[in-house]
Design a protein that fits this description.
This is DUF4177 domain-containing protein. The chain is of the alpha+beta class. It is built from one helix and three strands; from the N terminus they run βαββ.
Length: 53
Amino acid sequence: MTKWEYATVPLLVHATKQILDNWGEDGWELVQVVPGPNTEQLVAYLKREKPQE
């Protein structure tokens, strides 16, 4: 069975692509982006497969 690990990442509007590219290079897949605590911030939910133990 596939096991996943998850992360939540605050996104800055002016650097969204750079932030997501950096996490993507580490194997994280974007699941969803939702509004953050203020109007200028978003929160990204990411997942990646856990290494087998």
